[in-house]
């Protein structure tokens, strides 16, 4: 998330009541999670395991719970609870605005776009030309939809990220301030759920086709001309390159990369990144040809055991 205007390190420290290391006028342009940070961003870190990654990331302001040596060209915000203070900044710069009608006045809807009854369109949503939005679709604040997009009934775009910190006695929610971007010529089936990014965008690439009852997690980037069958579940922060096919009930682990042209057969569980233009099957998924060989060998085990007895 980029701020509407540049702020200073001192201003940010005042908002969250934190100490800072760096010049008072050090520029702060936004805040993001570590996988999408750019210079001028704040990134938060609250576990020693991830200190090094945060300090070496592209972010130039690190919100951290320990006083450490500040890398050259960067600044620190010292907090006893970076998770809490990252949430505080999210609320400050992108507060929740309740809806007072089914289609917000701030929504922009293109020409020849059809909005069926009982659709909810939130604040600052943009929908392009020649789209068809079927009944009972919910499009949360800030969603951007391109041209020639079809969305079927019961789909929700922009629900919060499934992201919690374990606290004594409860789980603390990380506030989502990102959005969903759907590019041109995308079809989205009925009862799909596409979560907004925590601080950036969850993106569906041009020409991608999504079947019914598909879940796509926060900050996942889907490439162009992908094909997802029913009941596919993709966790957060996954990169799916162009022309990937995921057949029914495929489950995908967070934080991995699915290379261009990958095909995952039905009911597979993918827990690792893939190679380009290869097919995978099984749970855990491996290359399909090798998995089918293994299954053939297993099928022959009774025959082999009889021969050696």
Strand order of the largest sheet: 8-11-14-19-22-25-28-31-33-34
The total beta strand count reads 34
Q: According to CATH, what is the class of the largest domain?
A: Mainly Beta
| Mean pLDDT value | 96
Name the CATH superfamily classification of the largest domain.
Hexapeptide repeat proteins
Oligomer: single chain
Task: Give the N-to-C terminal Cα separation.
Answer: 67 Å
Share in helix: 10-25%
* Structural class by helix and strand composition: alpha/beta
For the CA atoms, what is the radius of gyration?
23 Å
Beta-strand content estimate: 25-35%
Are there runs of 5+ residues with pLDDT below 50, and where? none
Q: What is the CATH fold-level name of the largest domain?
A: UDP N-Acetylglucosamine Acyltransferase, domain 1
Total helical segments: 5
How many distinct domains? 2
Described by the principal axes of the CA atoms, the overall outline is: globular
The CATH architecture category of the largest domain equals 3 Solenoid
Largest sheet: 10 strands, mixed
Keywords: Acyltransferase, Lipid A biosynthesis, Lipid biosynthesis, Lipid metabolism, Repeat, Transferase
GO molecular function: UDP-3-O-[(3R)-3-hydroxyacyl]-glucosamine N-acyltransferase activity
Enzyme class: transferase
Protein name: UDP-3-O-(3-hydroxymyristoyl)glucosamine N-acyltransferase
């Amino acid at each position: 998330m980029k701020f509407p205007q540049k702020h200073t390190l001192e201003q940010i420290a005042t908002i969250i009541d934190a100490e800072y290391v760096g010049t008072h006028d050090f520029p702060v342009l936004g805040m993001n999670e570590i996988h999408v940070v750019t210079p001028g961003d704040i990134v938060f870190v609250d576990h020693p395991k991830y200190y090094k990654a945060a300090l070496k990331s592209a972010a130039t302001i690190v919100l951290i719970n320990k006083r450490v040596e500040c890398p050259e060209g960067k600044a620190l915000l010292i907090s006893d609870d970076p998770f809490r203070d990252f949430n505080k900044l999210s609320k400050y710069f992108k507060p929740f605005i309740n809806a007072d009608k089914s289609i917000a006045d701030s929504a922009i809807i293109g020409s020849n776009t059809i909005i069926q009854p009982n659709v909810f369109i939130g604040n600052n949503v943009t929908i392009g030309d020649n789209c068809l939005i079927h009944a009972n679709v919910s499009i949360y604040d800030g969603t951007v939809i391109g041209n020639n997009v079809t969305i079927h009934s019961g789909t929700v775009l922009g629900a919060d990220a499934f992201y919690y910190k374990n606290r004594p006695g409860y789980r603390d929610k990380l506030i989502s301030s990102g959005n969903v971007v759907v590019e041109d010529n995308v079809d989205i089936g009925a009862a799909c759920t596409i979560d907004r990014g925590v601080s950036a965008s969850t993106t569906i690439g041009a020409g991608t086709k999504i079947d019914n009852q598909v879940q796509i997690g926060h900050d996942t980037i889907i490439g162009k001309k992908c094909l997802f069958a029913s009941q596919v579940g993709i966790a957060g922060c996954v990169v799916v390159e162009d022309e990937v096919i995921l057949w029914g009930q495929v489950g995908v682990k967070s934080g991995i990369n699915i290379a261009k042209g990958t095909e995952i057969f039905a009911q597979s569980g993918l827990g690792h990144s893939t190679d380009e233009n290869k097919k995978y099957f099984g749970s855990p998924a491996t290359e399909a040809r090798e998995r089918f060989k293994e299954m053939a060998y297993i099928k022959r085990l009774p025959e082999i055991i009889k021969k050696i007895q």
